[in-house]
Amino acid sequence: MLGYQLADGCAREDSDLTPTTPRPDDDPQAKPAVWQSLIELAGTEGKRWPQQAAGLARATPNDFVDLYLPLCRPVTERARVLGHLGQSIDGYIAAASGDSSFVNDQENIRHLHRLRALHDAVIVGAGTVAADDPRLTTRRVPGPSPVRVVLDPNRRLSESFQVFRDGAARTVLVVAGDSDAADRHGDAEVLFVPATDGLFDLRALVVRLAGLGLRRLFVEGGGTTVTRFFEAGLLDRLQIAVAPMFIGRGRPGIRIAAQASIADCPRPRNRVFAMGQDILFDCDLSGEDAATAAPPSGIDEAPVAEASPIRRIR
């Protein structure tokens, strides 16, 4: 079997599973110095990055660093966009009622918080806010909370949701329009972006966000929002966390246009990690081999010093 998180915190080849319990503000996977180094790398630009990344990989050669290091690369051109969805084996992110608490293991919940800490902005659709009322902060791990970007073309969300009133992080509500007028929605700034038939011009959105200094973008959900970024060719990476459960019928994850043959279906370069009870597929959609995002070859490999709830499979 694959490595799972057990009660003693070790990843073992075992079937005696004990559910992982939430530990707010505690990230047992990441040693503080290693995680802080990754956060600092995410803010490093220019020629210093390869040397610093190589030094971190040499000092801490394990699957945790292997997973997050590519996400810390400098943004050299346009914004870089990562999408993530957590789903069941049969491809659903929530029950038909919208209930999604919790499809994925707690280790994937911590992973989401780490992704937020490594990005300038976290993007969700209005449906995710309406269904889950999320806070979209980094309260489970050390690190800065990103700017929270909510896509609501028709401005149908009320100001009562947490992201618009808790003051925990800067929030931007994106609505359809061409205006540059200053506007507020609760505590949130309002950003107008062109839309057609209720669908945003996502390329224009990415440009507008980059103009606000938000160039590392994390699209956290839901399924429709991630799918639209995927179909627009705007995702550089897509992560799918598959939980060992069946929902039967519910709210789907990625749904793209049908292909005529299997040969025509996208099959991106990918890496696979065991993450608690879930399996994480980390897909590179940028056309760049994921290996080129890692430090240069020639770094000595060393055994992982201790067991980990994140383990690379492939």
Q: What's the gist of this structure?
A:
The protein has 314 residues and is α/β, with parallel strands linked by helices. The chain has helices at 32-42, 48-59, 63-68, 106-117, 126-132, 202-211, 223-231, 290-293, and strands at 4-5, 11-12, 80-88, 92-95, 121-125, 147-151, 171-176, 184-185, 188-193, 195-196, 199-200, 216-221, 237-243, 250-252, 269-275, 278-284, 310-312. Strands 8-9-7-6-5-12-3-13-16-15-17 form an eleven-stranded mixed sheet, sandwiched between helices. It has a two-stranded antiparallel ribbon with strand order 1-2. A two-stranded antiparallel ribbon has the order 4-14.
The CA-CA distance between the termini, in Å, is 15 Å
Q: What is the gyration radius calculated from CA atoms?
A: 19 Å
Average pLDDT rating: 84
Order of helices and strands: EEHHHEEHEHEEEEEEHEHEEEEHE
Shape: globular
How are the strands ordered across the major sheet? 8-9-7-6-5-12-3-13-16-15-17
Q: Tally the helices: what do you get?
A: 8
Runs with pLDDT <50, length 5+? 1-26, 289-307
- Largest sheet data: 11 strands, mixed
Query: Proportion of β residues?
Result: 15-25%
Structural category is alpha/beta
Helix content: 10-25%
Number of strands: 17
